[in-house]
Amino acid sequence: MKFTLISYTLTAFVLIFASLPLVQGKVGPNPWYGVRLPETMDNKDLWYKANKYGGTLMLAVGVLILAVTLGLYFVPHIAALTYQESAGTVTTFGILIAAFLIYRFVQKNKPQ
């Protein structure tokens, strides 16, 4: 269980710390980091709006992963498989839902 604790805690911290510059608007358009869709790459205003929104969602997902990972670790007598599946499910669905919401945000806010 310690490996699961460490790996999901690191995942949470990576999401949290990677999202902060996006939320603060410190990352300009680039091909490596941020919400890189054709619409955001072509429009600087949309880039910053989408990355602020996406960064906020990823920050929330990171905090959720951290809370679930740490919280379940201290549940007495929790089975290792239950712990792994719970942390993995929260991580997977948190990221997928955030990605869907970010894409929908970009589609709703792109210039016509």
Q: How would the blueprint of this fold be written?
A:
Blueprint: H1 2-23, H2 38-42, H3 44-73, H4 80-109
Helix pairs in contact: 1-3, 3-4
Précis, in short:
The chain is mostly helical.
Key terms:
112 residues, mainly alpha, 4 helices
Order of helices and strands: HHHH
How many DSSP helices?
Answer: 4
Q: How many β-strands, per DSSP? A: 0
Share of helical residues: over 70%
Integer tally of domains: 1
CA-CA gap between termini: 50 Å
Mean pLDDT score: 97
Major beta-sheet overview? none
Backbone shape: elongated
Q: Quaternary status of these chains? A: single chain
Strand fraction: under 5%
Structural class: mainly alpha
Q: Which residues form runs of ≥5 with pLDDT under 50?
A: none
What's the alpha carbon Rg, rounded to whole Å? 16 Å
What does this protein structure show overall?
- This protein is an all-alpha fold and 112 residues long.
- The chain has one domain.
- It is built from four helices and no strands.
- α1 (2-23) runs antiparallel to α3 and α3 packs antiparallel against α4 (80-109).
- The termini are far apart.
- The mean pLDDT is 97.
